[in-house]
């Protein structure tokens, strides 16, 4: 357990050595939890400040609004998602498995992104945002794969990416189905992962 500190005091260092765990970082960490649990409209800056061991005034000193704080948190989470889920167009079933693993381990990440889609629809379609750039890059990868024969050119790359993302997030996006299924016949995470990877394999077979 980290030692307690005053609201504006630093505590500890990062694993990369030397960088203090600042008030700003505590605010971001608390905000990530708050937004994942309550969404943007339901999040409360006073709760974020309390969790971060600081004041509302300090939160607003770093971030001009609750929406600006969410945008910062979401951008960091999307960057982490991109880094953790690199796509190999020759192994789209494997890519689906990577997405499944990421969101199974971090359902809060999925909720955080989903709240933004629901509450900030205009931001989700922003052509200059980081999410748009990530999607555009993956579509380019898929088009290149079609050009060299790794992927059936009959598919629209947009459909390919949308289908894989939807299949990979089936369980994290529909926990009520998982809960109902487990009451009848419990299944393991590994079994569910294997099922969705097999589904993507039928649509977009691996290229050996």
UniProtKB/TrEMBL annotation:
GO MF annotations, alphabetized: DNA binding
InterPro entries on file: Homeodomain-like_sf, HTH-type_TetR-like_transc_reg, HTH_TetR, Sco4008_C, Tet_transcr_reg_TetR-rel_C_sf
Keyword DNA-binding part of the UniProt annotation: yes
Keywords, alphabetical: DNA-binding
Keyword DNA-binding among UniProt keywords: yes
Record region (Disordered): 1-24
Pfam families referenced in this protein's UniProt entry, alphabetically: TetR_C_21, TetR_N
Residues of the HTH tetR-type domain: 21-81
DNA-binding region, residue range(s): 44-63
GO biological process assignments: regulation of DNA-templated transcription
Bias (Polar residues): 1-16
Protein name: TetR family transcriptional regulator
Organism lineage string: Bacteria, Bacillati, Actinomycetota, Actinomycetes, Kitasatosporales
């Amino acid at each position: 357990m980290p030692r307690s500190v005053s609201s504006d005091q630093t505590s500890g260092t990062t694993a990369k050595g030397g960088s203090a765990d600042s008030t700003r970082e505590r605010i971001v960490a608390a905000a990530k939890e708050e937004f994942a649990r309550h969404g943007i409209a339901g999040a409360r800056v006073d709760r974020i400040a309390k969790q971060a061991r600081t004041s509302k005034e300090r939160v607003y000193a770093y971030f001009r609004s609750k929406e600006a704080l969410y945008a910062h948190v979401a951008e960091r989470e999307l960057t982490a998602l991109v880094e953790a889920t690199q796509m190999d167009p020759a192994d789209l079933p494997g890519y689906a498995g990577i997405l499944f693993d990421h969101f199974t381990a971090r359902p809060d990440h999925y909720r955080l992104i989903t709240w933004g889609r629901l509450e900030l629809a205009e931001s989700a379609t922003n052509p200059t945002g980081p999410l748009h750039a990530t999607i555009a890059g993956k579509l380019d990868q898929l088009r290149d794969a079609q050009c060299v024969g790794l992927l059936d050119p009959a598919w629209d790359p947009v459909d390919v990416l949308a289908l894989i993302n939807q299949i990979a997030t089936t369980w994290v996006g529909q926990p009520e189905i998982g809960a109902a299924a487990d009451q009848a016949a419990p299944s393991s995470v590994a079994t569910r992962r294997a099922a969705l990877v097999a589904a993507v394999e039928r649509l977009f077979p691996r290229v050996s």
